[in-house]
């Protein structure tokens, strides 16, 4: 259980910022306006290791680089420098059915989503029943997902993500949708996933759930790791620094 | 590039799924489904045939088959490139969230249109057969149709190459899409669809340039492909131009070879350009 699932070394990420916006040839021809661009370094050298079966929470203020870190692990961005190595299959929990096509039915979208996550169509068809069962959307699964409510989309998205045999789950504050009962089911499933050796990296502003779920908490501050350790301790320091009460938010 | 190809192969299931999804979405909400995609070329050819037979006085028998033989592939090329150009921007929300080889997006567009072309060609052969049964004196399906796969492969390579470049550039400069729309419209007139390559040769001969214009004209790979499709799919026949009869020309394999090389270069270059730009799609300033 002590093997690393995610290994991050000296990770840096810079973005090119524009104040005018690109998107037309005009910006190419008006090259002298390039000074309107500036670099923004979002991550300034992160070293982090997540072991198999470990659940790590990432907290920090807006713009601290939490989502960028998750995107780099999901291979959506390429690091400016440094390394990200992930052992096994990653399943990013997509917010509200990103990747679902509104005109396709629930089933068609489930199959497609699974294939994006790296399964074959056959493997997905074998899992279809379990996914529908978990999402509790039997009645709607043959309807186009444009008719789904946001709660139903979240259920379906979650159901797919936990059925693709991922080794690493990336969660960017999406568990807050769905009713209480479904949320309980999600937590139960996550516990099962962890018991099976799966790792979770999740971003949250809900310090209460961080303390409840995470084994470890990482506090990101302006692109650097400010603290890394016991959730209880790190969230307390974070809350003190942000001078918000530990209870509530 | 080899590593990129390996990665693409690993995700081949996704490419198939994406093509399937594309085809489904396109016809999901329409009753006639696939036949809508045939109605466009059929009506175009119907109008062109009526205009040419009656207003311009072209006497070529079975003119509609000759127009179709060149127009179906042209339509494939046009739609493949234009659909590709939108593919990255249309899926930006998806690629911001999840990793997969980005080239799958334009490839799926080209592939979906290629499936259309194959189905349309199938209908085209049925059409030829029907014409033959009604009037056996009209030459019908040619043995040279066996060359079709070669031409299709060249055409596909060219469409993929251009589709990759256009999709990548359009992610940064949306003007590309508009430029391509105009270029494709103009390209239609620069390809032997409404007229014959024999007409081009006649003009070349009238200029006494030793066929130079004819060769230059066919250095345009799309024009060469249209000519090639027409030569192998329907029987080459003399073209009537006023009082003179222009002899039917054979397919110039040398010129097709040039097009094959151009297409291969476009494919490699397109993939190289795409790979250079693909990581920046999600972080456009």
Would you give an account of this structure?
The complex is a heterodimer of chains A (249) and B (285). Chain A has 249 residues and is α/β, with parallel strands linked by helices. Chain A has a single domain, classed as Rossmann fold, CATH 3.40.50.300. Chain A is 35% helix and 27% strand. In chain A, strands 5-6-7-3-8-9 form a six-stranded mixed beta sheet, with helices on both faces. A three-stranded antiparallel beta sheet of chain A has the order 2-1-4. In chain A, β8 and β9 form a beta hairpin. In chain A, α3 packs across α4, α3 crosses α5 and α4 crosses α5. The two termini of chain A are 33 Å apart. The mean pLDDT of chain A is 84. Chain B has 285 residues and is an all-alpha fold. Chain B has one domain. In chain B, 73% of the residues lie in helices and 2% in strands. Chain B starts with a helix and ends in an 8-residue tail after the last helix.
Task: Name the poorly predicted regions of chain B.
Answer: none
CATH H-level superfamily title of chain A: P-loop containing nucleotide triphosphate hydrolases
Question: What is the strand arrangement across the widest sheet of chain B?
Answer: 1-2
- Order of strands, main sheet of chain A, comes to 5-6-7-3-8-9
What is the N-to-C order of secondary-structure elements of chain A (H for helix, E for strand)? EHEEHEEHHHEHEHEEH
Q: How large is the radius of gyration of chain A?
A: 20 Å
């Amino acid at each position: 259980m002590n093997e690393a699932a995610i290994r991050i070394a000296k990770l840096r990420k810079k973005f090119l910022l524009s104040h005018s916006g690109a998107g037309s040839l005009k910006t190419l021809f008006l090259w002298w306006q390039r000074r309107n661009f500036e670099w923004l370094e979002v991550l300034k050298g992160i070293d982090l290791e997540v072991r198999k079966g470990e659940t790590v929470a990432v907290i920090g203020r807006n713009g601290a680089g939490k989502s960028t870190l998750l995107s780099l692990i999901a291979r959506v961005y390429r690091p400016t420098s440094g390394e990200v190595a992930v052992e096994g299959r990653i399943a990013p929990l997509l917010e509200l059915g990103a990747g679902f096509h509104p005109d396709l039915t629930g089933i068609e979208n489930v199959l497609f989503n699974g294939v994006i996550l790296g399964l074959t169509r056959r493997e997905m068809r074998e899992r279809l029943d379990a996914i529908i069962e978990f999402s509790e959307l039997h009645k709607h699964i043959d309807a186009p997902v444009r008719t789904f409510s946001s709660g139903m989309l979240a259920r379906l998205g979650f159901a797919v993500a936990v059925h693709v045999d991922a080794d690493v789950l990336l969660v960017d504050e999406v568990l807050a949708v769905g009713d209480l009962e479904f949320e309980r089911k999600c937590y139960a499933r996550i516990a099962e996933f962890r018991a099976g050796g799966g790792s979770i990296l999740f971003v949250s502003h809900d310090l209460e759930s961080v303390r409840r779920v995470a084994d470890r908490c990482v506090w990101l501050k302006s692109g650097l790791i400010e603290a890394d350790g016991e959730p209880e301790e790190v969230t307390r320091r974070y809350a003190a620094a942000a001078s918000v009460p530990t209870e509530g938010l | 590039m080899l590593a990129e190809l390996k990665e693409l192969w690993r995700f081949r299931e996704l490419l198939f799924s994406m093509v399937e999804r594309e085809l489904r979405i396109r016809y999901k909400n329409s009753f006639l489904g696939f036949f809508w995609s045939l109605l466009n070329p059929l009506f175009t050819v119907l109008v062109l045939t009526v205009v040419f037979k009656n207003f311009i006085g072209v006497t070529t028998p079975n003119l509609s088959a000759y127009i179709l033989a060149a127009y179906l592939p042209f339509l494939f090329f046009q739609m493949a490139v234009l659909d590709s150009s939108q593919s990255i921007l249309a899926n930006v929300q998806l690629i911001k969230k999840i990793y997969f080889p980005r080239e799958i997006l334009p490839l799926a567009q080209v592939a979906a249109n290629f499936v259309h072309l194959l189905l349309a060609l199938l209908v085209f052969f049925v059409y030829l057969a029907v014409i033959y049964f009604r009037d056996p004196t009209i030459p019908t399906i040619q043995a040279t149709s066996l060359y079709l796969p070669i031409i299709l492969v060249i055409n596909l390579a060219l469409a993929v190459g251009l589709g990759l470049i256009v999709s990548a550039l359009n992610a940064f400069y949306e003007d590309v899409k508009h430029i391509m729309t105009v270029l494709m419209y103009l390209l239609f007139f620069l390809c032997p669809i409404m007229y014959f390559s024999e007409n081009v040769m006649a003009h070349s001969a009238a200029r006494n340039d030793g066929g130079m214009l004819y060769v230059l004209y066919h250095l345009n790979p799309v024009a060469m492909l249209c000519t090639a499709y027409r030569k192998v799919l329907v029987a080459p026949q003399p073209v009537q131009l006023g009082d003179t009869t222009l002899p039917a020309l054979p397919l110039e394999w040398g010129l097709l070879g040039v097009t094959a090389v151009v297409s291969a270069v476009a494919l490699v270059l397109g993939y190289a350009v795409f790979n250079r730009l693909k990581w920046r799609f999600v972080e456009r300033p």
